[in-house]
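Follow-up to my earlier ticket, as requested here are the two runs.
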Amino acid sequence: MNLYQLRYFAELAHEQHYTNAAQHLNISQPSLSHAISQLEEELGVQLFEKAGRGTRLTEYGHEFLQCVTRSLSILDNGIENMRRYARGEGLIRLGFLTQLGVQFIPRLASRFLSLNPDCRINFTFHGDRTPELLDGLRLRKYDLVFCVRPIESDDLSCVPIDRQELVLIVPKDHPLAENQSISLEDTLQYPYIYFNNKTGLRFVIDELFEKVGRRPEIAYETDEEQIIFGLVAYGFGIAVTPYREILLKLNVKILPIVRPAWEGNIYMVTNKQTYQTPAVKNFRDFILRELLQQ
């Protein structure tokens, strides 16, 4: 028994005429008769009987038709779903640094959907810290992750897609607030609010101070940049942090860092060991075109 025989059986049951059914199936009438005979022989019962110039289902044929109809419907739905996925439809699961969920990720997703109006594409959005995002990527919870530079790994593919600006923030009444820019070596006498070692930014900022050749005095550590903003605004210390527009509304002075030279990036990360669906691949290719050609 094969799929062709089941489709032939369903068509003949509908047409109740061998010639008409064969024409609809684009096969010869002898081929259809042979297929039905093989099917009946395998099942051990007769499915059709003569009815004038046509044919009709037997009692067993009616019962079998119900099973075949349900089975073909399930199969056809599955085939159609696979074809939709092949056309680039389906689900895209994104993991990203929480701060990227304000503009960066929504802008990219919205733009991608506007360029593919005829495709049924859905997104899931999850914000977190870099270590948790990479763990989720390895556990196949996400298709794409957007974070600061991860530690080198054989199972991950990382592509820089956007620049991230680091600045020094100090309270507005701080001695350093008189500056218009800053060298980090001139800040080492003041206590720092620092990202803890659970964050990807800790590694990035540590690299900056390695270039200076000295480590800052760390007064407090946290993994939330909003907490760092608040602590600096209320005089608990100074901090190196990514530039965010919200800083303009706080009691802090924002100072560009002129030394040491540094260029940071946001990375798009994929799991090399995971199959990328056409939808995910299309979105990834779109991001590379959209951002890297700017």
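Run two:
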Amino acid sequence: MAFRGVRDRRAPEPRHSVQRPPRRLAVVALAAVLVALSVVVVTGRATGSGPTRCETFSADSVARSGSVSGAGEDVLVIGDSWTAGLGLEDPTGSWPTRLPGRVHVAGFSGSGFSAGASGCGPQVSFAARARAALRPLPPGTPVVVAGGLNDWDMSAADIRAGFERLLGQLDGHPLTVVGPADAPARSAYVPRVEGLLERLCAEHGVRFVAVSDLALDYLPDLLHLTPAGHARFGDAVAARLSTAG
């Protein structure tokens, strides 16, 4: 981040009227200013500034979790920004609302299977959030975990570890994993992550739903869905969940 200097607009002082401060003091003062500016750059915040990106994601996650849609059997959807509705004017209209049943949502933007998928820390991974999201729900509530796009640069070992941690948090709740869609911004990485998740599901007897074949409508960032994209994605997942073995 560049910082522009401000020109001193004071009138020039009369010659010899005031002595200039020693050069060493001027250097020290400049160093202090640079240190203060570096703190702002590194932390992304200054006193009195707005919330950080992670704080915004956290607030959005809490707000989205407060909106339960549908009626019938309870189902929990754990996911990333697609589940949280990032980029939508009304995030409560994100794709899980298209699923049948009484749908509860635990979405956190930027999160994934692996602990390092999010810059907000390992505490927002799918596994780390699962137990708290399930706590108020009846025993045996089905869980749908959807994601993988944020694991694009994570190693297979990291994704496997996160997947297995997730299984350990479910306490007998049946799990279905919905893999990553073919978002244009990360299209090159989808086959690797999708293939790994499908193999992990097969190893552990978990239902896997592939969605990389879907043609969806994306926002200009080519990563997040438009309202129409959410509707199509949700309807497709609902249909495939009903037929998945």
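The only thing I checked on run two: The mean pLDDT is 85. Let me know what else you need.
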